[in-house]
Structure formats: C-alpha cells, structure tokens
# Entry
Amino acid sequence: LGAKVVISSSSERKVEDAVRRLGENASGIVVDLNSDDLEKIVSAALQRIGRFDHLVYTAGDNLIFSPFTEIKIEDAKKNYNVRYWGAFTVIQSAIKLQLLSKDGSITLTG
# Structure
C-alpha cells in the first residue's frame, strides 16, 4: 500500500516540487513557521492531515554559515524560531489534538 506523506514548507514551490516527485500518495501544505499565528496555523494544518503514525520535523534550510561575530541578530532569531519554536509548536499541537497514533513516533532532525 505505501505510506501517505504530507509535505510542509513555507515555500509553495518546494511543496509542489516535493509532492510531484513523491507521487500520488503525497500532499502538501504551505506553513510559515515565522508567522505570528503559528499555533493556530499549525493546529489547522495538523487537523487537515488527521491522525498519523509518524511525525518527522526537519525544518529550515536557513543554516547560518558566517563567522559568529558577523551574524545579524534578526537572522539568528528567525533561525531559532523555525528550528526551536516551530518544532515545539508542531509537537505540542499534535499531542494536544491527539493526532499522533497510540504507537506513533516523532523524529527531529536538522
């Protein structure tokens, strides 16, 4: 049967490309993890997906490859928001909404 996969990104183009490559068992949702309404947006996206067995959170392609003294604070905050608060919000919402199956698992990468 194969797994059903839901891809999410802040980039509509990335979502569409991934869904196209993964085929008919894939769908996508555009979510901006830097949004002021992050909890509401994540909850709505997870409810659209419904129950699931495995959550993989691998956010952001915005690693900062600069000398520490040259990193702008706004870039560091954006990176932290996506990598920490994004993961926190997605996992917390999945648990609160009881969407992760009883034997489900969560993988964090990045």
